[in-house]
Each structure stands twice: as structure tokens, then as C-alpha cells.
Write a structure and sequence with these properties.
The structure holds 2 protein chains of 2 kinds.
Chain A lengths: L10 E4 L18 H13 L6 E5 L4 H4 L5 H9 L9 H6 L12 H20 L5 E4 L20 H10 L5 E5 L6 H6 L6 E8 L22 E6 L5 H19 L3 E5 L17 H12 L5 E4 L6 H16 L35 H16 L4 H6 L7 H11 L6 H19 L10 H9 L8 H39 L2
Parallel strand pairs in A: 1-2, 1-3, 3-8, 4-5, 4-7, 5-6, 7-8
Chain B lengths: L4 H7 L1 H12 L2 H7 E3 L3 E4 L8 E10 L5 E10 L5 H20 L13 H10 L5 E3 L11 H6 L19 H7 L3 E12 L3 E9 L7 H4 L4 E9 L4 E4 L22 H5 L5 H4 E5 L7 H21 L1 H6 L3 H8 L2 H13 L4 H8 L11 H4 L2 H14 L3 H7 L6 H11 L3 H14 L2 E2 L1 E3 L37 H4 L3 H4 L24 E3 L6 E3 L1 H10 L19 H8 L7 H4 L7 E2 L8 E2 L2 H12 L5 H4 L24 H9 L1 H4 L1 H6 L7 H9 L1 H4 L3 H9 L9 H9 L48 H6 L9 H13 L1 H7 L26 H17 L1 H5 L47 H9 L2 H9 L14 H4 L11
Parallel strand pairs in B: 5-9, 6-8, 7-8
Antiparallel strand pairs in B: 1-12, 2-3, 2-7, 3-4, 3-11, 4-6, 8-9, 13-14, 15-16
Helix pairs in contact in B: 11-13, 11-14, 14-15, 17-18, 28-33
The chains are: A alpha/beta, B alpha+beta.
């Protein structure tokens, strides 16, 4: 919009008018139609005219094999409902058939969903936008060579890979009720992507996402899992989301964020078991948006479609920073929203099995893990050290109490960022002063040397571990004050 | 577009229904007694055993108005075989130790399987319980202190290792009652047996166990128990590591500026801009343009003939022109003309006339819409089939788009109402008032039905072997009356209190133990004693052994269950009256039987098939057993027929028999002094029923060559066909005859064939005509609701089963008749089996308990009968006759042979050879195959 450019973000929205016409099959809960319902609501709410609307390209096989295996993509490209019988063996291998059925236009659907996320990521890279939205994406279960949980091609991974070209560290947050296993697995061993997933755990698809799954190799501590129980309500969700994301932002210091907004964590979802309202769900978007980082929002689960489109419409309005009425505007699918025809929904009176104590315990444990991360600000101010010297230096760095300096630094950065965005339209490509990614590129200088880096890095982690143990007492005493400060700094 | 009110109600019921209910009524009481899908509940199977813990998966209203719940089972520690418990504890110790050795926050996937223990178990019994680690990394699911708390008392105390004991002994003991094992097994129970809510959560390592102990009715689980495979597994997925799983093109740093430049892709290739907010128009101008384009659309509809037919009024045209497609087109037009309103506006009215944007909803003609609905009825939402067979001129996308718009119409609302009626039986929640009845009321289904009479003669070397007898016989008397008020004033077995408003008998009757009210409640809820029993002699077994487990596994549907009774906590006692020794394990008991009494427990049914070779029958999944009555018992039945009401008892085997007078009678010298031969005579006493010979009757009938009075015999003469009374309605008319005189039956097509049938119904034949009318008569509501021609009215449209009225439906007359015959036959056959509850699978003719569909309700509780899977079924045992056996059989007359087959336990009076044909064949020839 023309008014108040400083408070409003430049939002790009990706949508293909065909997406609503893909149909998973009779009785299948996944309905791409929900994306069209969202789109129509956006139009009639007048949000459509406030953002850049793009029709994404169809991602090519080349683009998709940046993550997926060639074989798998070839298979997806060739399989059709009428030739399924020839592919029996491969269908089993790639887990296509039951949850992930073969339907007409399957490959195109994948192309559109992946195309949107990739284009959005490129857009963010070029700094042509601050927030990109692709409700057709967010298919977080897809694996490298395997479909899973209604997901075939992992558009999120493809988007993040794109972002990694320009951003040293990318944060992935997943508020789907299911664990974001596909994304977590894809980046399980890298320290450049931190995956944070809030999900129902225990006798629930896909079965992964234990608190103790924290990543492997270089990626150890870079996977954060928050296992939750039935009945999460807005209040408890916020009570765990805010502190954890604040802490993650602080320790990991990403330069771009991807948020998977799976709407099956809403109350009354056909497959979900949480009790969130549209508002509570949207609060997560609001909170992440406050960090003013390049921000990619994607869709995901969501199987009570009227609530999904409510939720995503609201979240689009949050991203745009413009309020919308609770009264739903008339649109082609208005009748879906009866009997109240309101935007917001009320929670049910289901019991919340997540006690405050439980959430507190989880939080403490995750904070312990996050403390294991090499402290980003400390490493960042380092001049590029020689390989051998790195360890001692970082040790010395660790001993310095980071609390003192951090918040101010954080704050500074944030101010600077906002200015940048207001100017960025006029700047040419690459003209932006991106401190974060620049510093980040210096963070792990040794890794440029290739394989040696892995061992060295592991060693370093061990050292840090012992280091932290020594410092644990200090940390514990500091912990509470530290958190308080950081929470404050997260809400400028 | 205003919608009918009903539509609103039915549409949003999802999230709002629950809410409204709870809000309007007394909240506290309502929520406590309101059971929803997903709730964890206590569920009472028997008054003597603890509650079972279940999770409600579905709630159904049955035809008679009662509510059934489909539930997922959780098992207590005591429900698991001891071997598995040991394994679970070991596994957990290992993981705890592993966790201790690692840094506090880290656990990388590790194989935790304990190979030697697994092997050990496998060799011990043939089943091989295993802890399978699906994900490999079930690392340390319990903290070290818990792992000690979890140790069963049988285990080596030292094994716990150096962990700090956070919990007191008492707490450890109680902790064991809070652990559950999830199973993926479901069963169906009557909702009235639900006895309250509880809470079951997956234990998280960060939690302290005390939080469970301190909270009433809260349980945790870590492992999943598979009752059919008898395995435990950690329910955990796995994040795999390796180049095949991770994204591999991640450089360690982001690209340099030069590399970024070299990216050949241009943004234009990746995306097409269709709208941008950066323009000079105000919101107001955009809105105006939208109104203009809508008015152009309205006008265009007025000009368009096809549209003016569809939308006769101006209002309808305006409404159609306001659909989203016009708006999207308007926005696109604005964008295409660089947000110049004037240019955009003129493009709306090109030389060819005003622009008309129509979506699928409008595009489709009325007949196409009808076709679509018909197709939807026929195929369900299989849109590619619908397109192919009904609307080939549409694209699949057209059809799908139309479907989603069609859902907003009145037509859909009507369909939905039909569906809602069907869905009514599926409930979201159910209100169950507090359970106040005396516990004895629910005991009925669980009480022993067959009271074993004493077995005085063991002349054939085999006493009547009654499985479960150990737990059955002795407690029957007092199990029915649960409220034992004064059993000699013993203190509470658990808390040693001597005062309580209510006492409950507990444990084996000879111990005369009892529990005070609070401890009883604890026992019911948590399946153990609040405090460990002080009796060193009588250890409370913390688990049910195999037999009980089998009973559990069978779910509510099995027949043996009724016999199993809540003997869960009782040790195994030898059923030989003079002996009565107790054993902790059933295996021990059977060894005792074999050694002390020469009873081959496992072989008793299978004709020595078990022998010493296979260990399996002892641990058999589902012990098939039969009651073999002794001569004394049979004699007693005859003598006590009056008290016993044998026929009644046979029909209602689940009702307890008052054994006291019978026992008294049997113990009386009148009976005990009799010799076996006399007894046998007594038993047979009533049996020979004088039956006149056919010839006598025939001659007697022939003695009257003419009726005494004229007309006496008229009723015997056949009525002439013409005079016969015709039924008002022929339900199943005789099909037409073929030229050769045979009846022409209409073939009933299978479902796939139905799908393939041509659209036009086959020419109805006369017989079919009647069927059609019947159909219509029986299903009027559908016709009314649809308001249409009733052609596709009798169809559950969501199921996608298409049955056009013209097609033959319903079973043909012949078949119906057939099944009826079958039924009566069954009923006849099963009079006997209900007396003799189970016939052993012998002689290759396994009489399966589950083949009694018409028998009296033998199952415990009112749970629905389930078809058991083959996994649960008794092991297949079949008898391979050796040559010798075959030869022997040939010596028997067919009558004898048949009789032997029916009563396989009876000795055959075969003179020459070993008395029992089965026995005779023991040896190499004999092959018993257990799968």
C-alpha cells in the first residue's frame, strides 16, 4: 500500500489458479482446494491488492533434484493413475500409493508447490521482498527419495537450499501438528540450518521428533524438537513458542527464516489434536515477523479446510500488518464457513494434557541443548583464525560472559535492519549491507577446507561441551536473568 | 446468497457442538461424566479384577439405543508376560546406563537390543518375546532412579547400579502401577462399563515420576506391546543419517558475490507478476472499477441467451456477475493495463461485446448438473470416473472445480442431510452418569459357569483336566457376593487398617484377605496394592500369566473369557482336590500335573500331540479346553436335575450355578459309595426313552381304514391349487421358467460388475418389477428427500455403490431360504456345544468356539462379538493318521467312527490295539503341526 511504508512489509504472495483443482482422491483428507478458498477470501478481504501476487513457474526436474534423487523425480514425472500398474515396485520403494496416492496431475501439483517456494526464496535472496508467502507449499514430510504424509516434493527444503546461497544460517520453524521430519532429516547434519518443530509426539504420525533428536555430526544441536501432547491451547503454545524461538534467534542468529504454518494444529482439525485458535496460530507468525528477517511463509497440513483458509487468510493479514474484520466477506465459498461466517474460531473445551510443569521441563532441556551451540556473537567478532588456533580462541570467547554484550548488539542490528528494508527497493541487487550473512561467512572459516572440517568441528564441539560443563554453574545462575533480558529484547 | 437455516446448523457442528453443550449445562458435572472420543477411561470387565485402561477411538449408537465404544487397549505391567517385563526392565536399564554415560543432553541413535536376553527368551518358550527397537534410538526413556523403581522384585537388586535412589521403596512400588504399555489392539465395549476418566501420556524423559504419583488417575507409557506377536517395541520413528537422506548440495558457506552473479536464472522465469500494490490507484478507484466490471458482467448476461435462460431475473444475473471470477478478471485487467482505469474499462467492452466471465458453476447446464449429481451418487467422489463415464466433454479440472462450488448449493445441503442421518450413529461424546451400583451387579458375566464336580474316578489314568480350574473352582462361591462383611475381622491386606465402611474380598478365597475401601479403589484403578502385602508367603503376583493374558488378548469377544474369571491375582493351584498346591507360573503347574499326577495337561486335548517335544501348547495363545465330565458328574447332573435345571443352565452358561447343594449331594454317601459301574448306570438312568417302533405306529394308523366320522380326515387331503389362499404380496416370487423347466435366476452381479454395467438399466423383467416396488416401498424417505425421480434414490451415495432400482438387488428368494435353513440347523447343532462349552480340535474336525453364531452370549461383558483374527485363533493342530490308525479305523463301524469323532475324548472300545487311536499313533508317524 501507499500509506505508511515503514511499518508495512513488502509481501509477495505466490498462487496458481490451478492449484485448487488437484484432487488427492476420494476420502483423502488433503485438499488443495483449501488454498483456493484462502485465495478467494484474500481477494474479498481486500488483502489481495495490498501485496504482490505472483503466479509461480513450474519447478523443473533439475530444480527438484537439488534435493531429491533423480530416480525419485523421474518416477514422479512418469507415474499416472493409468500406468500405475507398471510401477508397482517403484511405488513401494518411494512410498507412493496409500497415504500419498497417485492422482491426476500429481507431478504438476508438485511442480507448482515447489516452484512457488523456490521462486519465493530467490525473491528473498534478491531482496526484492521481505515476506514471501506460498500457501501451496509447506510439504514438510517429503524425503529425499520417498513420499510421505501427503507430501511428494519437499518445497521447503528446496526453498531453504535456495536461501542458503545467500544466507549463512537459515532458521526453519514448523508449527504443523505433525513433526517436520522431512526438513529435519534433510538438514540433520548441517549447522547452517536449524530446524525447530513444535508437534504432537507419541503414537502420532510420523513418529519422529523426540526431544532427544538433536541432529547429528556437524548438525548436532541444530535440530530442535518440541514434543507436545494433546490439547495445546493458545496460552500454552505461546508459553513455549516465544521463549524457545527467542532463545533460538539469540543463539543461532539466522539471517533468514522459513515458517511452516501447517493449520492442522488448529482446534477441530480432522487429523490434528491441538486446540489452537486462528489467533493463537497467527501469533506465531506475528512473533517471527517481529525479527524483521527475510521471511518465507509456507502452508502445510490442515484438514478442516474452512479453518485452514480462515487461518491462512488471517496470517496473510498479519504478514501485511493490516487488520481485517471478523465478519467474513462474501465469496464463492462463503457457505463453507457456516454457521457463524466469522473469521475467528473458538477453542473446544478439550483437556490440555500439557501441564505448565511439563512445558517448563521441556523448555529447560531445550535451553540446555541450545547452550551447546557455539555462541554465535562471540564467534562472529573473531578475526579469521588459523585452523589450530580456533579452539583456544573460541574457548576464550566462551569464558567471556556473553550476556553483557549481546542484547545491545541484537538491538543495534535490528534497528539497522529496518532502515535497510525501507531503502532496499531502490538498491540494486547485492547492494544491501547484510551484516549477518557477511559475518556468518566468516564464522566457520575452517570448513572451506573441505573434509577436514568435519573432524575438526566435532572435536571443537566436544571441547565446548566440557567447557560448558565447567561453566554450567555460572550459566544456571545466569540463566533466568538472561532469559528475561532476551525476551525483552525480542519485543522491541 | 441466503442459506437455509438447517444448513448452518449441520455445517458447523464440528467445533461448535461440543462447546454449546458444555456451556449450557452444569459444567463441572457434565465435563466429568462426558466422555469423548480420545478420552482415556477406566473400564470394568469384572468386579474382581482391576479396571482396564482404554482410550476411546469411536463411539457408536447401536440399533437398540445403547452406546458402544471402540477402544484402544493399554496393558498394565501385570498384564504382560513376565519375560517381557524382565526384558523391558533390562532394556530400560541399558538405556538408562547409556544415558548416564553420555552427556546429559545427547543421545545419538544406538542399538539397544539386548541380544543374549532375547535369545534366552526365545529358547525358553517358542514364541520368542523380543524388545524390538524400531527406531534404534530409544535412548534412556527413564532416568536412572526410575529404572530402579521399575525393577520387578524378581530381579537382581544389584542390577540397578549406582544410581541415586530418589524414590522410596513405597514409591517405587506404586510407580509400577502407573506404567502402562500401549497396544495397537482395539476392542469394542459397552459404554456403560466405563468407570471414569484417567490420563495416559507418553513419558517424557524430562518429567519426574513423582508428578505421576502425585496425580490421581495418571499413567504413563513408554513401550508398545504387541499382544499377538508378544513383543515390545519402542514407538519411535527415526531420522536417518547418510547421503541418501540429507540434502547434499549444502556448501559450508553461502555463495560469494561472483557466484551469485553467475546464477543464470532470472526472476521473470520463475514467476509472473499478476498484481502489484505499487500503483497510483486508490482503494476507492479499485472498488469502483470492480463495480463497473460487475455491471458489465450483468449486462453481458442479459445479452447472452444461454445466461438469460439460466438467470431469468436481473437479481440473479447481478449475483452471477458478482462471483469471484469476475473480480479476479477485473484485477487482472487492471494489472494488464498498468493500473490505468480508463484503458482497463474500455478493454471490458471490446468490439465483440461486453466481457462475460463465467465460472464452472455458471458454465454448467442444468442437465449437466443433473448428470453430475447422478454420477456422484453412483461413483462417489471418484471424479476421473465421473468425467469418463458421465461428462467426457468436461476436463477433470472442470469437474473438480464444479464439485467444490456445487458443495455450496442447496442440492448439497440435501445430500448432506441424508448423510447426517447416517452419521447419527457415530457419536462425538457420550454422557455416562456416575456408576453407583454395587459391584456385584456386573459380576454376572464373569463368574464361572461350569462348576467342576469332584472327580472320584481316575481309572483311565486321566482326571478331568480343567484348564483355569485352579482359579475357577474355589472362588466361585464367594465371587458372586463381593461384599464380604466380616471375614473374621482380618485387617486390610494393603494398609493394615481394621476399620472401613466397606470391605472387599480380595485374593484367593482360602486366604480370606480383604481390602478396605480406599485400598480397594486403589487396586481397581492401579492394579496393585497400595502397600506391598506383608505376607511373605503370599506374594502378590504383579502380572497375569499367559492364560490370563490370552484372555485379555481375545478381547471381549472370546468365549473362554467367561470361564477365565478375574483370577488375575491368584496363583495357579492344582485342581486335583487332594493336592491343591499353588504355583506362581502356569508352566510350573503343568509340570506339577505331569510329575505328580501323571496328567498331561497339554496333551489332554491334542491326543499326545504336544508330547514332550513342542513347548508350545503350554504357552498356547488361546487355550482351547473342554469340560470332560466324570461319571460322577454326569450322575450328579441326573440326580440334581431339579436343582440344577440343566436345560436352563445349558442355555445360560454364564450364570453361576449354586454349587453348594450339589456339592452336598455329591458328597453324600449315597453317591460316593457307588462304584463306577453303578454311577455310569445312574448317569444313564433317564436316558433310554421308550420310543415306539415305526412299524407299530404305521400299523396302528392303518387300523383305521375309514374315518370315524365323515369329514374327520378331510384336513389330510391336499387343497386344490386353485383353492389355496394366495398371499397378499409375493416377497420372493418364483423366477420364470426356462424352456427346459429349470428356474431362471437373475444373476446377482458383483460390485465390480455393477460398476461396469451400462447406464441404461436392463429391461426389467416381470419378476424384477415386483422387486422394484418392494424397494420403493421400503425406502420412502430417500425418495422424499431427494425429491427426484427416485432413480438413484436408494443409494448410499458416499459409499459409491451404485444400485439402480432396475438392477436386481437383495438376495434372490432361493438364497434367503437357504440361509434360513442353515440357521435352524446351526441352532440345533449348538444346543449341545453350549452345554459342553468347547469341543477340542480333534480328529481333524476342530469345532471352533467361534463358529457358534447363535449360541447364548458366552462372551464376557456385553461387548460385541468380534471376528478373531487368525493370529488369535487356537493353534492349528491337525492329526495325521498313520497307517496303523487308518487300519484301526477301518475296523470300526461307521456309527462308532462318527460317535468317536463327536466325542474324541471317549475311549474307543477297540479290542486289539492300544485303547486310544490317537494314543496309538504317537510316535514318529504322529505329526502335529503348529504354525
Amino acid at each position: 500500500m501507499t500509506t505508511a511504508p515503514h511499518s508495512k512489509k513488502r509481501v509477495c504472495y505466490y498462487y496458481d489458479s490451478d492449484i485448487g483443482n488437484y484432487y488427492y482422491g476420494q476420502g483423502h483428507p488433503m485438499k488443495p482446494h483449501r488454498i483456493r478458498m484462502t485465495h478467494n477470501l484474500l481477494l474479498n478481504y481486500g488483502l489481495y491488492r495490498k501485496m504482490e501476487i505472483y503466479r509461480p513457474h513450474k519447478a523443473t526436474a533439475d530444480e527438484m533434484t537439488k534435493f531429491h534423487s533423480d530416480e525419485y523425480i523421474r518416477f514422479l514425472r512418469s507415474i499416472r493413475p493409468d500406468n500405475m500398474s507398471e510401477y508397482n515396485k517403484q511405488m513401494q520403494r518411494f512410498n507412493v500409493g496409500e497415504d500419498c496416492p497417485v492422482f491426476d496431475g500429481l507431478y504438476e501439483f508438485c511442480q507448482l508447490s515447489a516452484g512457488g517456494s523456490v521462486a519465493a526464496a530467490v525473491k528473498l535472496n534478491k531482496q526484492a521482498s521481505e515476506i514471501c508467502i506460498n500457501w501451496g507449499g509447506g510439504l514438510h514430510h517429503a524425503k529425499k527419495s520417498e513420499a510421505s504424509g501427503f507430501c511428494y516434493v519437499n518445497d521447503i527444503v528446496l526453498g531453504i537450499l535456495e536461501l542458503l546461497k545467500y544466507h549463512q544460517r537459515v532458521l526453519y520453524i514448523d508449527i504443523d501438528v505433525h513433526h517436520g521430519d522431512g526438513v529435519e532429516e534433510a538438514f540433520y547434519t548441517t549447522d547452517r540450518v536449524m530446524t525447530v518443530s513444535f508437534h504432537k509426539y507419541g503414537e502420532y504420525f510420523p513418529g519422529t521428533g523426540d526431544l532427544r533428536d538433536i541432529g547429528a555430526g556437524k548438525g548436532k544441536y541444530y535440530a530442535v524438537n518440541i514434543p507436545l501432547r494433546d490439547g495445546m491451547d493458545d496460552e500454552s503454545y505461546e508459553s513455549i513458542f516465544v521463549p524457545i524461538i527467542s532463545k533460538v534467534m539469540e543463539t543461532f542468529q539466522p539471517s533468514a527464516v522459513v515458517l511452516q504454518c501447517g493449520a492442522d494444529s488448529l482446534t477441530g482439525d480432522r487429523l490434528g489434536c491441538f486446540n489452537l485458535t486462528v489467533r493463537g496460530h497467527g501469533k506465531c507468525v506475528e512473533f517471527v515477523k517481529k525479527y524483521n528477517l527475510p521471511f518465507l511463509m509456507v502452508g502445510g497440513g490442515g484438514y478442516t479446510i474452512r479453518n485452514v483458509s480462515r487461518c491462512w487468510t488471517y496470517e496473510t493479514s498479519v504478514a501485511l500488518g493490516s487488520e481485517i474484520a471478523n465478519e467474513l466477506p462474501y465469496n464463492d465459498y462463503f457457505e463453507y464457513f457456516g454457521p457463524d461466517f466469522k473469521l475467528h474460531i473458538s477453542p473446544s473445551n478439550m483437556a490440555n494434557q500439557n501441564t505448565p510443569e511439563y512445558l517448563e521441563k521441556i523448555k529447560t532441556r531445550l535451553f540446555e541443548n541450545l547452550r551447546m551451540l557455539p555462541h554465535a556473537p562471540g564467534v562472529q567478532v573473531q578475526a579469521i583464525p588459523e585452523d589450530g588456533a580456533a579452539i583456544e580462541d573460541s574457548e576464550a570467547e566462551e569464558k567471556v560472559n556473553p550476556d553483557e554484550r549481546l542484547p545491545q548488539r541484537d538491538l543495534d542490528k535490528r534497528i539497522q535492519h529496518e532502515n535497510e528494508y525501507s531503502d532496499s527497493e531502490d538498491e540494486g541487487e547485492g547492494g544491501r549491507r547484510d551484516n549477518r550473512s557477511f559475518k556468518g561467512s566468516r564464522k566457520r572459516p575452517r570448513l572451506e577446507k573441505g573434509q577436514e572440517g568435519v573432524e575438526g568441528d566435532l572435536k571443537k564441539e566436544d571441547d565446548i561441551k566440557t567447557e560448558t560443563k565447567e561453566n554450567e554453574k555460572d550459566d544456571k545462575t545466569n540463566a533466568t536473568s538472561e532469559e528475561a533480558k532476551k525476551d525483552g529484547s525480542a519485543n522491541p | 446468497m441466503p442459506m437455509p437455516a438447517e444448513y448452518h446448523e449441520s455445517h458447523g457442528n464440528h467445533e461448535n457442538a461440543n462447546f454449546g453443550l458444555a456451556a449450557t449445562q452444569d459444567a463441572s458435572n457434565m465435563t466429568a461424566n462426558m466422555y469423548r472420543v480420545g478420552d482415556y477411561v477406566y473400564f470394568e470387565t469384572s468386579s474382581t479384577s482391576p479396571y482396564q485402561i482404554r482410550r476411546i477411538e469411536e463411539l457408536h449408537k447401536t440399533a437398540n439405543g445403547s452406546v458402544e465404544a471402540k477402544v484402544m487397549c493399554f496393558f498394565r505391567r501385570r498384564d504382560l508376560p513376565s519375560t517381557l517385563i524382565m526384558l523391558a526392565d533390562k532394556h530400560q536399564l541399558a538405556s538408562a546406563e547409556q544415558q548416564r554415560s553420555e552427556s546429559p543432553a545427547s543421545t545419538q541413535s544406538q542399538k539397544l537390543e539386548n541380544p543374549d536376553s532375547t535369545k534366552d527368551m526365545t529358547s525358553k518358550d517358542g514364541i520368542g518375546p523380543k524388545v524390538m527397537n524400531k527406531g534404534g534410538g530409544k535412548g534412556g526413556w527413564l532416568k536412572a532412579p526410575l529404572s530402579e523403581a521399575q525393577e520387578p522384585h524378581g530381579m537382581d537388586e544389584g542390577a540397578g547400579g549406582g544410581g541415586v535412589s530418589e524414590l522410596s521403596t513405597k514409591q517405587r512400588h506404586q510407580m509400577k502401577h502407573r506404567e502402562l504399555f500401549l497396544s495397537r489392539q482395539t476392542e469394542t465395549i459397552a459404554a456403560t462399563l466405563i468407570r471414569g476418566k484417567c490420563c495416559v501420556t507418553l513419558l517424557n524423559e524430562t518429567e519426574s515420576l513423582l508428578s505421576y504419583l502425585n496425580k490421581e488417575d495418571s499413567f504413563f507409557y513408554c513401550l508398545v506391546f504387541d499382544p499377538t506377536q508378544r513383543t515390545l517395541l519402542a514407538d519411535k520413528g527415526e531420522i536417518r543419517v547418510g547421503s541418501r537422506y540429507q540434502a547434499d548440495s549444502i556448501a559450508s558457506v553461502s555463495l560469494t558475490a561472483a557466484e551469485r552473479e553467475s546464477d543464470p536464472r532470472r526472476l521473470q522465469d520463475l514467476e509472473t507478476l499478476v498484481w502489484t500494490p505499487r500503483h497510483s490507484l486508490t482503494d476507492r478507484q479499485i472498488d469502483q472499477f470492480l463495480v463497473v466490471s460487475r455491471s458489465v458482467g450483468t449486462f453481458a448476461r442479459a445479452l447472452d441467451c444461454s445466461s438469460s435462460v439460466k438467470q431469468p431475473s436481473l437479481h440473479m444475473s447481478a449475483a452471477a456477475a458478482s462471483r469471484d471470477i469476475t473480480l479476479f478478471h477485473a484485477m487482472d485487467t487492471l494489472h494488464r493495463h498498468s493500473y490505468d482505469v480508463a484503458k482497463a474499462m474500455s478493454s471490458l467492452v471490446p468490439s465483440s461485446g461486453p466481457v462475460l466471465c463465467r465460472d464452472e458453476m455458471e458454465e454448467w447446464s442444468a442437465s449437466e448438473a443433473n448428470l453430475f449429481e447422478e454420477a456422484l451418487n453412483k461413483y462417489g467422489k471418484d471424479f476421473s470416473d465421473i468425467r469418463q463415464d458421465f461428462l467426457p466433454w468436461k476436463t477433470l479440472k472442470n469437474v473438480i472445480e464444479y464439485y467444490y462450488m456445487w458443495k455450496t448449493t442447496d442440492r448439497y445441503v440435501q445430500q448432506k442431510r441424508v448423510k447426517a442421518v447416517e452419521a447419527e450413529s457415530k457419536l462425538k461424546q457420550v454422557y455416562i452418569p456416575n456408576y453407583n451400583k454395587a459391584p456385584s451387579s456386573s459380576t454376572a458375566p464373569n463368574i464361572t459357569t461350569v462348576v467342576p464336580m469332584g472327580n472320584s474316578n481316575s481309572s483311565n489314568g486321566k482326571t478331568a483336566s480343567i484348564l483355569n480350574g485352579s482359579s475357577n473352582g474355589n472362588i466361585t462361591g464367594d465371587a458372586s457376593g463381593m461384599l464380604v462383611v466380616g471375614v473374621g475381622g482380618k485387617p486390610c491386606e494393603s494398609c493394615q487398617m481394621s476399620q472401613s465402611p466397606q470391605w472387599y474380598a480380595w485374593g484367593p478365597s482360602h486366604m480370606q484377605c480383604r481390602l478396605c475401601q480406599s485400598c480397594w479403589l486403589y487396586w481397581k484403578k492401579y492394579g496393585g496394592l497400595k502397600f506391598q502385602s506383608i505376607h511373605s508367603t503370599f506374594q502378590v503376583p504383579t502380572r497375569i500369566d499367559d492364560v490370563d493374558l490370552d484372555r485379555k488378548r481375545g478381547g471381549a469377544g472370546s468365549d473362554e473369557e467367561g470361564k477365565g474369571i478375574g483370577g488375575a491375582h491368584r496363583p495357579h493351584r492344582c485342581s486335583i482336590p487332594s493336592c491343591g498346591k499353588e504355583f506362581k507360573l502356569k508352566a510350573h503347574l503343568s509340570r506339577h500335573y505331569a510329575s505328580a499326577h501323571g496328567v498331561d495337561l497339554r496333551g489332554s486335548g491334542t491326543g499326545g500331540g504336544g508330547g514332550g517335544g513342542s513347548p508350545r501348547p503350554v504357552m498356547k495363545t488361546r487355550s482351547a479346553f473342554y469340560l470332560r465330565t466324570s461319571a460322577l458328574a454326569r450322575a450328579a447332573r441326573r440326580l440334581c436335575a431339579a436343582q440344577l435345571r440343566t436345560r436352563h443352565a445349558a442355555r445360560a452358561p454364564h450364570q453361576p450355578v449354586n454349587a453348594a447343594p450339589l456339592r452336598h449331594l455329591c458328597a453324600s454317601p449315597q453317591l460316593t459309595s457307588k462304584s463306577p459301574a453303578e454311577l455310569r448306570l445312574l448317569a444313564r438312568a433317564v436316558r433310554p426313552r421308550p420310543r415306539p417302533r415305526v412299524t407299530d405306529i404305521a400299523t396302528r394308523l392303518g387300523d383305521h381304514p375309514s374315518p370315524r366320522q365323515p369329514g374327520d380326515w378331510d384336513w389330510l387331503a391336499l387343497t386344490a391349487p386353485a383353492q389355496r389362499k394366495q398371499p397378499d404380496r409375493v416377497s420372493f416370487p418364483r423366477p420364470p421358467k426356462a424352456p427346459d423347466g429349470s428356474l431362471l435366476y437373475e444373476r446377482v452381479p458383483n460390485k465390480p460388475e455393477v460398476d461396469r454395467l451400462p447406464l441404461t438399466p436392463p429391461q426389467p423383467q416381470p419378476a424384477m418389477q415386483t422387486q422394484q416396488t418392494i424397494l420403493k416401498r421400503t425406502r420412502p424417505p430417500f425418495d422424499e428427500i431427494n425429491g427426484s425421480d427416485g432413480f438413484y434414490s436408494d443409494v448410499d451415495w458416499d459409499e459409491g455403490i451404485a444400485l439402480n432400482a432396475g438392477l436386481p438387488c437383495g438376495p434372490p428368494a432361493k438364497r434367503a431360504h437357504h440361509s434360513q435353513q442353515l440357521h435352524t440347523k446351526h441352532a440345533l447343532e449348538h444346543v449341545a456345544p453350549s452345554v459342553l462349552p468347547l469341543a477340542p480340535p480333534l480328529n481333524g474336525r476342530a469345532a471352533h468356539p467361534h463358529s457358534l453364531p447363535h449360541g447364548p452370549p458366552l462372551s464376557r461383558s456385553n461387548a460385541r462379538k468380534q471376528v478373531i483374527s487368525w493370529m488369535d485363533a487356537p493353534d492349528d493342530v491337525y492329526f495325521r493318521a498313520s497307517d496303523q490308525a487308518k487300519r484301526l479305523r477301518r475296523t470300526l463301524s461307521s456309527v462308532e467312527l462318527r460317535r468317536a469323532a463327536r466325542k474324541p475324548w471317549r475311549r474307543l472300545p477297540a479290542p486289539l490295539h492300544p485303547p486310544h487311536p490317537q494314543r496309538a499313533s504317537r510316535g514318529d508317524d504322529m505329526v502335529v503341526i503348529l504354525d
